[in-house]
Amino acid sequence: MAENAVTLTVAHGTTKHNIEVRGSESNEPLLNDLAEAIAQVTGVPLPSQKLIFKGKSLREMEQPLSSFGVKQGCKVMMIGKRNSPEEEAELKILKDLEKSVDQTSKKLEKVDGELTGLKNGFLAKHLQAEALSKLDQRVKVAAEQFMKILEQMDAMSLPENFSDCRMKKKGLIKTVQACLAQCDKIEAGISDHLAKLQSKNLALSE
Predict the structure, then answer these.
(1) What is the pLDDT of residues 13-38, one digit of tens each?
(2) What is the dotted CATH code of the domain comprising 85-205?
(3) Which helix (H) or strand (E) holds 155?
(4) Contact 17, 51 (CB under 8 A)
(5) Which DSSP state fits 68?
(6) Per residue in 33-54, pLDDT tens?
(7) Where is the Ubiquitin-like domain (predicted)?
(8) What is the CATH number of domain 5-79?
(9) What pLDDT is stored for residue 139 in this prediction?
């Protein structure tokens, strides 16, 4: 069975690094795991790296290292430049925004879980309307947060050569748009459940 961690020598210019590469969970390491470990140690981002082993360029990121013949103690060459300090500063802003997206997304998941609980009758009927109103408010706060993040990214003017930043920004915009769609879906679920409650109450009062 292949090991889920290997130590390799990575030559970058005149510098050599001994880098331990671990696979996720109990899986053997992939080329992507190596590229990420190199980025951590050298500061050269993944899109700027060119990895060479025994004269061949390694490109298939999702392939295990063993499929290229790369094993414990092997030497891999990396060509690539670190980002400029200006790009690193922009990248840090994007990483901070990514953390905010992650935190807000977790809050949204919690609201979704609580809404499912209400639909399954985990709360007395007469308390549900107030609970739904509070959930609706939390969804609106999350949606507002996502909109602010989109506005911040929209205001970022990234030069063409900031490829790492541009790629991260593009991915983050897609994530935020998916989160906003989730907000709409949850709000629709809240309105739907509230309408059902009101029609039941109306039927009972008649």
Answers:
(1) 888 999 999 887 778 889 999 999 99
(2) 1.20.58.120
(3) none
(4) no
(5) G
(6) 999 999 988 888 888 889 999 9
(7) 4-85
(8) 3.10.20.90
(9) 97
